[in-house]
Amino acid sequence: MLDVIVAGGGPTGLMLASELRLHGVSVLVLERETAPTGHVRALGLHVRSIELMDQRGLLERFLANGQQYAVAGFFAGIEKPWPDRLDTAHSYVLGIPQPVTERLLAERAAELGVEIRRGCELVGLSQDDQGVTVELADGTPLRSRYLVGCDGGRSTVRKLLGVGFPGEPSRVETLLGEMEVAVPPETVAAVVAEVRRTQKRFGVGPFGDGVYRVVVPAEGVAEDRAVPPTLEEFKQQLRAYAGTDFGVHSPRWLSRFGDATRLAERYRTRRVLLAGDAAHIHPPTGGQGLNLGIQDAVNLGWKLAAEVAGWAPEGLLDSYHAERHPVAAAVLDNTRAQIELLSVEPGPQAVRRLLSELMDFEEVNRYLIEKITAIGVRYDFGEGHELLGRRLRDVRLKRGRLYELTHGGRGLLLDQTGQLSVAGWADRIDHVVDVSEELDVPAVLLRPDGHVAWAGDDQQDLLHQLPRWFGVADKEAVKG
Predict the structure, then answer these.
(1) How far, rounded to the nearest angstrom, does the alpha carbon of residue 261 sit from its chain's CA centroid?
(2) Cα gap 327→125, rounded to integer Å
(3) Contact call for residues 242 and 202 (beta carbons, < 8 A)
(4) Tens-digit pLDDT profile for residues 435-462
(5) What number is the average pLDDT over the span 421-442?
(6) Are the beta carbons of 25 and 5 closer than 8 angstroms?
(7) Closest CA to 382 of 317, 470, 291, 464
(8) Using CB atoms within 10 A of its CB, is residue 210 exposed (0-12), middle (13-18) or buried (19+)?
(9) Can you list the domains of the chain with their CATH numbers?
(10) Greatest extent of the chain over all pairs of C-alpha atoms, in Å
(11) If DSSP codes are grouped into helix, strand and coil, which group holds residue 242?
């Protein structure tokens, strides 16, 4: 029997599979599509996702395939500069198309021994106290100890579980596609600049090889959003908003998306869990969707691996929902707010002008960007040090960098005192004695996802906190 089946081979599913394999968990990824899609729905990685790639030793391959930007106007298209003092060693957005991200993550998963089966659609599931049985479209049954649905906003896993998906349906819809144009680039740029003075949901920009990425409001909301729009629909809407269709032709792909906002009532139902778009959908404003899913995967991976290995403390797997559900709710709220600020109606425009004034204060601008980039996330670990529950930025050490020590996905005690011990947890936690001028605390205990589980210098206090996240100590190791 497999340890974990992951339904869905997008960025969330692939990242989760890799995280599980770091801990020796047997993983099978089932992907309905027979080949990777060329649709570029997401355009890049935010700071927290960039940090996670660095934590796992993957950043160099991503940097080699992307471009770094300090993007202005990132919150609701309000033109304010990128903040100067973000608490990160990676203060940029990494422009990288979603198909490239998926390719790199698939390569990583394969390197770690993940089996990916394409053309396999999950159509049924049942679970008992020992595991989960899934049924494929061709009738094949598969058995695993756990199942994770990473199968998108129309998640079959979520529907089969009967998990509620409350929220709001789409009120507005947007057409998105890649195609060629028949007018000079300077003409396109001039027209787009004029239209975007009032309509921030409009855009026609070069995407390379003579192809343009076209984003234009739709005429209404389609009854079935799974049905792609036609090129003629794009032409009609371009003429309606820009007075010209730019002579668009030769489309590579065409799609539509809405502003529906929904959040799964629960992320876990016994041995089945949800992650990524299967757990939450929201408007793409701020480019947070793919990033939110990757961050779900890193939060869940080590916890599920601990459960499989048998050392997870009580409640650890349930902490996935407790921590990530509020994060998704906050993302839904900020995307709702951004959609309102993109409206051309007088009321939202008045609020937009007021917020634009407030964002001239550096603290406000930085706060909003920290929301979008997810470096402002703090899990509720209770009272304690100001770092508690926060992810720790990469810091320089006397011998290298912090994130270089986290490639294996284990816990980490960074000990600047040299007086602490994690004897009994050495199979789960690396103990590194080193110093950093950038870290004003004697020692920190990091969970595998990089969040601070403890900070201080008291050995007894550390021993009190270790079982909460890393289970019962190995008594034989303690004796030794």
Answers:
(1) 16
(2) 28
(3) yes
(4) 999 999 999 999 999 999 999 999 999 9
(5) 97
(6) no
(7) 464
(8) exposed
(9) 2-167+262-373 (3.50.50.60), 172-258 (3.30.70.2450), 396-479 (3.40.30.120)
(10) 79
(11) helix
